[in-house]
Write a structure and sequence with these properties.
Rossmann fold, GMP Synthetase, Chain A, domain 3, alpha/beta
Length: 613
């Protein structure tokens, strides 16, 4: 990619450059030369300050059952948080046991989250999939037993009845915003909201400082039981201060977000949720999802709500694009006031990036900055930022103010490690895991790999180079870098593939298990062919074969050449761990669950297989 000269929506993004230190041979430390600005004491102090400045501004908005927007102002959110904090204090709940949340994003969840923080009690947001998509609820039972919440909140108890029956509720209070008849013995949230705050709330908040645990966020658990990542107020506050130093335009115009990203993950629950608070903005809670049949809700919301920031995962952008290209009202709604597009979780395929550029140009006559960062649940979430037009879509930028990145040789890759005030102190009740997560200089081992965009100029940023553990060897002994190859293959086969996982471990050649883009394949095959016909269509196969043949000609090595593709009809399954509720593909889980398809791919059995010469 390159920085075209077409107009760009002005965002006044700050580019601070990078300082470079090389403490040992082949080891590089990058840090931001700009000092981190002064930090508030905690997130609730920020909420109260913004409430004093604009008490009547909408803070959280969500559609009701009639489709109208319910609105909670800053004053209402602060009042609700104080009442919930008082109820928690009166009930003897304290910082040693968290408040668990099992349901989806909601205004009431915001009340509970901020109320617990006001009382100095950690929040434990749990993926609703553990309750609603599981038959045995083993993950949920393990999470509850390990983290031992004293309060469990569900928005509507009816869908959670089986999950609640499966877990040990002894010594725990159940709180619900739904009907009391669906949860006998539960506390109605309305009763908590009616409690009058006393000086005890102020006394509790006075004890909340930088080192206080604000949240316990769970890792995906794709390779075992989910780990509870301790998130302090220092982590969250420092991240917002640093991002605001880069995104200077946020000081001039409070952000408006239309957002679906789940609050039980660091992207939605830390960056997006906290960005609204820190910058005095408004969040419209989007109940759409990056899944067929649910993405249409997001499109409908875009016809009405015009965000200034739009944040999503690459899969979300990919699913939105064909609908936006067809729907002028939604397209204009998205771009009318937009200053910035942000993606995270994995690299944005080149064809998706270019289509977003074209869509913005066609709609408002200017490009919109597309940016990203690198981080994880343990980094609250961002450690780097990228706010220029990069040469490659995998560029994740340079360290934020206050942050450092260490690049250390690991096999034939550079392993990324991170240090700064945004880094977690460790995992809840897991001292050995916590110790192992850091190196001798207290850099966090994030597990990602990176390379320099320009080895002669580190200020051009680092490029995400997959997970350290994601690479595998062919029988030739050659390493395959699955993350990088996946992106290249999706771009080469455009517009046919929405996503893919790379196969070939202990085999002689590389293949793909591919999730087709239904819209992209239909654009080639014509009409409204169903997925089971699209994956066998001659025109689709030709596009895949020709695109990957061009890729193979430019990348002739055995580790970069894709020789076979199996086009799958079944989308990734969230309850099987193949895709997270943020829309990220879990390569390991897909390969394990679909091992039979891998065998069939290499046997060449099926007319849904494309072989590339």
């Amino acid at each position: 990619m390159s920085g075209e000269t077409t107009p760009l929506v002005d965002t006044n993004l700050k580019r601070f450059g990078v300082e470079v230190e090389r403490p040992a041979r082949d080891v590089t430390i990058l840090r931001c030369p700009e000092p981190l600005a002064e930090l508030p004491d905690n997130l609730i102090a920020i909420l109260r300050g913004r409430t004093d400045e604009h008490p009547d501004r909408d803070m959280f908005c969500q559609r009701d059952h009639a489709g109208r927007w319910r609105r909670a102002t800053y004053a209402e959110v602060r009042s609700a948080a104080d009442s919930i904090a008082q109820t928690l204090i009166d009930g003897g709940h304290g910082p040693d046991r968290p408040v668990a949340v099992l349901s989806d994003n909601s205004i009431e969840q915001a009340f509970v989250t901020l109320g617990a923080m006001t009382a100095g009690i950690p929040v434990l947001p749990v993926s609703p999939a553990y309750s609603l998509m599981s038959s045995d609820h083993e993950k949920l039972k393990g999470v509850i037993a390990r983290n031992d919440p004293s309060v469990i909140f569900v928005q509507d108890p009816a869908p959670f009845a089986d999950a609640l029956a499966a877990i040990d509720m002894s010594g725990r209070r159940l709180v619900t915003a739904g009907s009391a008849k669906d949860a006998p013995g539960a506390d109605p949230l309305d009763d908590w909201l009616a409690r009058q705050p006393t000086g005890a709330v102020e006394d509790a908040l006075a004890k909340v400082g930088h080192d206080t645990i604000a949240k316990i966020l769970l890792t995906s658990g794709s390779t075992g039981a989910p780990k509870g990542v301790l998130n302090t107020h220092l982590m969250m506050v420092s991240n917002q201060v640093a991002m605001a130093q880069v995104y200077a335009f946020l000081r001039d115009e409070p952000p408006v977000l239309l957002d679906w990203l789940p609050w039980n993950h660091t992207f939605g629950g830390n960056y997006n949720f906290n960005a609204v608070i820190y910058n005095g903005g408004t969040m419209y809670i989007d109940e759409g999802r990056p899944l067929p049949g649910q993405i249409e809700t997001t499109i409908a919301n875009m016809r009405e709500i015009s965000p200034t920031l739009y944040l999503n995962v690459p899969r979300g952008f990919d699913l939105l694009l064909p609908l936006l290209e067809e729907d002028e009202a939604a397209r204009r709604g998205l771009f009318r006031n937009l200053k910035l597009l942000f993606f995270a979780g994995s690299a944005l395929p080149r064809n998706v990036w270019e289509r977003l550029d074209r869509l913005a140009l066609d709609t408002i006559g200017a490009r919109v900055t597309i940016t990203t960062s690198l981080g994880s649940t343990e980094t609250a979430p961002a450690t780097t930022y990228m706010n220029w037009y990069p040469d490659s879509t995998g560029n994740v930028g340079v360290p934020l103010p206050g942050c450092e990145v260490k690049l250390v040789p690991n096999g034939d890759k550079l392993e990324v490690r991170m240090r700064g005030p945004n880094i977690s102190p460790g995992y809840n009740k897991e001292p050995e895991l916590s110790a192992a997560a850091f190196d001798e200089d207290r850099f966090f081992r994030i597990g990602d790999a990176a390379r320099f965009e320009d080895p002669d100029d580190p200020a051009e940023g680092i490029v995400f180079d997959g997970r350290v553990a994601e690479s595998f060897k062919l029988t030739t002994g050659t390493w395959v870098h699955a993350g990088q190859l996946r992106l290249q293959a999706i771009a080469a086969a455009a517009p046919t593939l929405q996503d893919a996982v790379v196969t070939g471990q202990d085999r002689s050649e590389v293949g793909l298990l591919a999730f087709p883009s239904v819209a992209g394949c239909q654009s080639l095959a014509g009409g409204d062919l169903p997925p089971d016909e699209l994956v066998r269509d001659r025109r689709v196969h030709e596009a895949v074969r020709n695109g990957l043949a061009r890729h193979n000609a430019e990348n002739p090595g055995s580790s970069t050449r894709v020789r076979r593709v199996l086009m799958m009809t079944e989308p990734p399954q969230i309850d099987a761990g193949e895709i997270t509720d943020k829309g990220y593909i879990n390569q390991r889980a897909v390969l394990a669950r679909r091992s039979g398809l891998v065998e069939r791919l290499y046997a060449g059995q099926g007319d849904d297989i494309v072989v590339i010469g």
